[in-house]
């Protein structure tokens, strides 16, 4: 069974490995830098549309981020 914590860890991983700044990610997604920081720290989850756009921005497979592979 996939847990929320596993998904949060994957989100943090892909953001960290992207090499993009939190500010650049936030600007592209139309959210605050603090929101991106919360995703990295695992204290908040992105909305589904934000998650889809984050995966698109970072060229990450949503199946990977959602622990489907």
Describe the structure.
By secondary structure, the chain is mainly alpha-helical. The chain is built from five helices and no strands. The protein has helices spanning 4-18, 22-29, 33-41, 48-58, 62-65. Helix 2 crosses helix 3. The two termini are 13 Å apart. The mean pLDDT is 96.
Round the Cα radius of gyration to an integer and report it.
11 Å
State the order of secondary-structure elements, H for helix, E for strand.
HHHHH
Strand content: under 5%
**Mean of the pLDDT scores?**
96
N-end to C-end Cα span: 13 Å
Q: Structural class, from secondary structure content?
A: mainly alpha
Number of helices: 5
Q: Low-confidence parts lasting 5 or more residues at pLDDT below 50?
A: none
Helix-residue proportion: 55-70%
Largest sheet: none
Tally of strands: 0
Oligomer: single chain
- Overall 3D shape: globular
């Amino acid at each position: 069974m996939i847990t929320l914590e596993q998904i949060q860890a994957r989100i943090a991983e892909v953001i960290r490995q992207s090499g993009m700044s939190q500010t650049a990610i936030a600007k592209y997604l139309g959210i605050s830098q603090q929101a991106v920081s919360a995703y990295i720290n695992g204290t908040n989850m992105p909305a589904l549309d934000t998650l889809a756009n984050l995966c698109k921005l970072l060229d990450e497979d949503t199946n990977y981020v959602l622990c489907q592979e």
